[in-house]
């Protein structure tokens, strides 16, 4: 279909306005990236930009941005819980303005700030620990009491009427939202201009290994010889890893999100509540973008359920009663590759030349460009950058799990 | 697509009544297992994109634990099931 569309452009003699192009698949590439989402495209872009590796193919089974990259709720922040995670997210958050200029693309970075609500003294104590960690690490974050939360977001109900009254909140001013599709397009265009091939509608069927090293990738469009493969397949990263005999400490769970009809601007921050399993922000078009319910069983469907819509309506009306009567416009589902410690797997592997960038769960969007940048450095030089060392696959065997779970109480699928 | 799961005790019920209990794995011998193998047993999953055998628990129902085969691509029931009592 895409080819037909391209041909029509060419026949009419119009200027080729497409942001990335189709190329015939070569029999060999210096590196192959499995997954045309943000992590894969970012790694490809930085391989070309920083390391002059442009003989790179990005293989995408559907079209770029089809998976989590186009299905997330576009929130960015860097108030993670643990000192191993904060530096990566902090650098990632500071990268957005730089990317907008460099890629010459309006990514609609709106640093409106995030307010994460606590509904009990115990939850507040947890958030205060997270605030303290952020402050020690130089990330702006502060704890607000309920009245201060109300001053920030006047439509919050801080009375005792809601099922879980608001006790306080963690305010993180530098966070906000970024237009997720624009990031996909901008990185794809950037990579394409560097000469990197993006092969859409191409399925990886197998990864070839000889003597413990990657030698190629078998796709439904032909076999590619390559010594380097990056698994950036998001929800399908376990499927891709299985091709080289690696099982991952990942559970693939379906996540749902939805948007309301456009409303007048009234919500100027990202508001989230772990207790209600809910977060909401208002897009620049006026829609309330809200998530996210996670069905706690493994699934490769991107299903949506009435159960979730009811839950979300109740949660939003409890937090912000002014939303009563607002109508939901769209609902969708995506896949999350959840790890037991809520931290990603950015790692080499027992198979030589096979790298992993997965296990992001629902943190994959905000971290994509910065991780791609460091992953590209690792692939190109063979040396693991210091900032990625905590995310090794080996940490599970060493019983050295990270402590991110504390930041997302009640969000996890395990309760 | 289905959102029903068949409890061996209660019959087909809404899947939200159940809790997923993990993939069915072979438990290693605790007396001889190495620390690394134990970590693999605890943390690693197959995440089959297709039919896999899983533990489920009828949490908001009769409380039965049971193993069931389910297709992760469409949640469709359940090729066969067995009650592990």
What does it look like?
- The complex is a heterodimer of chains A (415) and B (85).
- Chain A is α/β, with parallel strands linked by helices and 415 residues long.
- Chain A has helices at residues 2-11, 38-51, 68-71, 86-103, 121-136, 146-152, 180-193, 237-242, 306-319, 368-381, and strands at residues 31-34, 56-59, 75-76, 114-118, 142-145, 168-172, 176-177, 197-199, 204-210, 213-219, 222-225, 229-231, 251-260, 270-273, 278-282, 288-294, 328-338, 345-347, 354-358.
- Chain A has two domains: 26-71 and 181-249 and 341-408, 3-Layer(bba) Sandwich (FAD/NAD(P)-binding domain), CATH 3.50.50.60; 110-176 and 251-338, D-Amino Acid Oxidase, Chain A, domain 2.
- Chain A is built from ten helices and 19 strands.
- In chain A, strand 15 (278-282) and strand 16 (288-294) form a beta hairpin.
- In chain A, helix 2 (38-51) packs parallel to helix 7 and helix 2 (38-51) packs across helix 10 (368-381).
- The longest helix of chain B has 9 residues, at 35-43.
- Chain B contains one helix and six strands, in the order E-E-E-H-E-E-E.
- Chain B has one helix at residues 35-43, and strands at 4-7, 11-14, 19-23, 51-57, 65-71, 77-82.
- Chain B has a single domain (4-82), classed as Folate-binding fold.
- In chain B, the strands form two sheets. In chain B, strands 3-4-5-6 form a four-stranded antiparallel β-sheet, with no helix packed on it. In chain B, strands 1-2 form a two-stranded antiparallel sheet.
- The model of chain B has no long low-confidence stretch (mean pLDDT 88).
- Chains A and B meet through helix 8 of A and helix 1 of B.
Q: Care to give the gist of this entry?
A:
The complex is a heterodimer of chains A (415) and B (85). With 415 residues, chain A is of the alpha/beta class. Chain A is built from ten helices and 19 strands.
